Amino acid sequence: MTERTRFAPSPTGHLHIGGARTALFSWLFARSKGGKFLLRFEDTDIERSNEVYKDSIIKSLEWLNLNPDEEPVHQSRNIDRHKSLALSLFEKGAAYYCDCSVEELEQLRATQMKNKQKPMYDGRSREKKLEYEGKNVLRYKMPDTSTSFKDLILGDITVENKELDDFIILRADGTPTYNFCAAVDDLDMKITTVIRGDDHLTNTIKQLNIIKSLDGTIPSYAHLPMVLSESGKRLSKRDGALDIMDYKSEGYLSQALLNYIVRLGWAKDEIEKFTMKELIDFFDLSDVNSSPSKFSLQLLDWYNNEYIKKSDSSTLLNLLIEIGSNIDEKVKNIHSIIDVLKVGAKSLREMNENIEMFLTTPNIDNSNSLTSEDNKKIIKDFLNSFDFSKEDNLDSISQRLNGYVSANDLKFPQLGKPLRYALTGRTNAPGIGELIYLLGNEESKKRIEDYLE
């Protein structure tokens, strides 16, 4: 049997880290088994679903290179199929109509909470044998036994069905509900393994029973523990729960983000970085940790820097332009500038901001301690002594700088700190030799003269 997995987001928002991890694990599992990865939009919530979010999710998956193997399925387009199967469950006695009013159910809930009971529907319409009268809902009759299955990550799971109520599968207006639609679609799409967050465990019990009642083949299930913030709380935007495309615009490389995401709960030996081929070869759901993982922006930045450092300047230039940079190959020494800056860059956005120091005249703040009279004297002596007419390479400039420091009985920071500020207007910048080499002799000399004015 061909392995078939699916990623089934609700298009009520953008794709975030948790969803991207679910998509990645589903994609990897299918690829590792020579199977297919599918995409389904669970868009039956008409009021909240939006085409903008569908487009955003597709673009995010494309950027991450997690493309589905078949055209996306739209759950809302299968409503007639869902309704037909829901009614078939009524015909075979696996579902029943309920005529409870909203007020009656609210009173039931209030009484249960007052008595410190779990608020849930009590099955009061189970034996009424009602027909549809234009306002009745159709409820699935949960079996009176327990439900057991072997989770591919969490192990053996057993739930007493009495812990769950007889949930609605057709609303009073005849529209089907999420759990029923999801079960039918998994059946129709021939899904063999469902991989999703462990917050769906209750949904799995419901959907598994629906598939049984429809005499379908039950897929395997794997529930991923949640991704938490570093403080152990649910991820928020402040902690890193951004739209995936926001990571792109902030200058993260897709390979770095993927490599980081896959490490949120999965590991292979002591390996830190993987090619996609290696991920496919190594990935196994049995290696996924059954405990929640924690998001770390610091670790993501480390991964991003690792991938940026290994990228050539032409690739990085194109990526910089893609995120909105206005630089191009006509900028003097741009490839050399990129090669210098990429070594310490946490993101393309940071690189782009640092490129500005080579393109614009620095704004010198004379209240800064680096512009004190003592510092200016050191820089003035340097300007009068250093030969800016020589056509040096980086090594020779560095050698001459070291020679100057030794000859004048200085420690390098005594020259380096104010000189770096004179050349860039910043305290954090590349090495002095690299700055002079990349700026060029003429521009370097002019900036130093401006600093001394």
**Binned strand content:** 5-15%
CATH superfamily of the domain at 4-227: HUPs
CA-to-CA gap between the ends?
78 Å
Number of continuous helical runs: 18
Outline, from the CA principal axes?
elongated
Global Rg: 31 Å
Largest sheet: 3 strands, parallel
Query: So what's the CATH class of the domain at 4-227?
Result: Alpha Beta
How many E-type strands?
Answer: 12
Stated plainly, the CATH topology of the domain at 4-227 is called Rossmann fold
Structural class by SSE content:
mainly alpha
SSE pattern, N- to C-terminal: EHEHEHEHEEEEHEHEEHHHEHHHHHHHHH
Q: Supply the CATH architecture of the domain at 4-227.
A: 3-Layer(aba) Sandwich
What integer is the average pLDDT?
94
* Biggest sheet, spatial arrangement of strands: 1-2-3
Give start-end ranges of low-pLDDT stretches.
none
- Percent helix among the residues? 40-55%
